[in-house]
UniProtKB/TrEMBL annotation:
Its cofactor is Zn(2+). Binds 1 zinc ion per subunit. The lineage of its organism: Eukaryota, Metazoa, Chordata, Craniata, Vertebrata. The gene is LOC115360647. This is Metalloendopeptidase. GO terms for biological process: proteolysis. Residues 1-16 form the signal peptide. SUPFAM superfamilies: Metalloproteases ('zincins'), catalytic domain. PROSITE patterns: ASTACIN. Pfam families: Astacin (PF01400). One of its GO terms (molecular function) is metalloendopeptidase activity. It comes from Myripristis murdjan (pinecone soldierfish). It comes from the Eukaryota. Zn(2+) binds at H149, H153, H159. Its EC number is 3.4.24.-.
Amino acid sequence: FIISFILLFKTSSLTANLSAHEKNIIMKSIIPSKNTGHTDIRFFDDIAYDSEAERNADPCTARDCKWEQASDGLVYVPFIIANHYSDERAIIERGLQSFHSVSCIRFVPHTNQRDYIHIQCYSFVGRHLNGQTLSLNRNGCLYHNAVQHELLHALGFHHEQSRSDRDQHIRILLENVTPGFEYAFNKVNTLNQGTPYDYNSVMHYDRYAFSKNNQPTMVAVPNPNTEFGKATQMSQNDITRLNRLYKCR
């Protein structure tokens, strides 16, 4: 299955010196690219989905989103990296390998497997049949945390601020959201794998995501000074829920 990543604007050590306004400009320059050549794919910020019904459904209850576990307890996910990546290839490979030491996920080069991810920055949530495109935009989004973010989408995870319990932790300020992108703040009926809401998750957007006026689109509750959306790599909660979903030993 082909996964296309639109690896967005997640901050990293390489972008730490950018202002929130600059990050937002980068984000806006990537997102409107929409579906280049994929006329049957719809987009939910950096997530691709097949139908309107999938937008608000947790994919692990709507369909089998998980990659299969082998008899040795490992989950092998075949991948192809598009030829147009050169210097960026090392960043992508580091992101792939970062899952190996903390989970039972093993990204392996594709040979003749039917299902695989084709890294070409949008991603389907969970497993899709046959080749799934995972598109890593070369202009500003090839960072370690961004690769991990999109790989977690491909493994079945939504954005943290879309969690079913997010209203207890985040307040959405729709009055500051760029018109047409309100849907990016929809809640999803997620399972959460028994883990707490995580401001430090690599799946959490920052407070200025999709801002139309350089004002926050999200604030933490009850403490509005709580920082979020600044993860440079997967948090322990990201790792825990990954291992629980895939029943890693």
